[in-house]
Write a structure and sequence with these properties.
Layout: H1 9-19, E1 33-37, H2 44-56, E2 77-81, H3 83-89, H4 103-112, E3 116-119
Parallel strand pairs: 1-2, 2-3
Helix pairs in contact: 1-2
Length: about 120
């Protein structure tokens, strides 16, 4: 699935719809390895969409709220492909009510939750 890059509204709607479909979504597998396609990760919403797809499959779950990862993430390996896109884009968009999370903040939150983060 490719994300609309012109505005965040389509990604936001995808995230809202995916969050409403937790039924049938697989559990996070401890010690599992997940591949996050970072090609279109340009903001928090696109990060959550990509994370949800990496872990739960297309159209399922949002992964987590940005920067909030529970104990179920401990031991998971997340291979973040094209991390360079997020590194250049996350946290640089204009504020809309709150400061957007930066790439280092999201990466640190994953690591603090016990995720082995591999940046590719």
């Amino acid at each position: 699935m490719r994300y609309e890059l012109r505005g965040c509204e389509p990604r936001g709607e995808w995230l809202r719809q995916a969050a409403r479909r937790p039924r049938g979504a697989p559990e996070i597998i401890p010690e599992g390895t997940y591949d996050l396609d970072g090609t279109d990760v340009v903001d928090e919403t696109s990060f959550l969409c990509a994370l949800g797809e990496a872990v739960y499959g297309p159209g399922r779950g949002s992964g987590a709220e940005a920067g909030v990862f529970g104990e179920e993430w401990a031991g998971v390996t997340l291979v973040w492909h094209r991390a360079d896109v997020a590194r250049a884009c996350l946290g640089v968009q204009p504020w809309r009510g709150r400061r957007p999370a930066t790439f280092p903040e999201l990466a640190d939150a994953l690591r603090k939750a016990g995720v082995r983060l591999v940046l590719d």
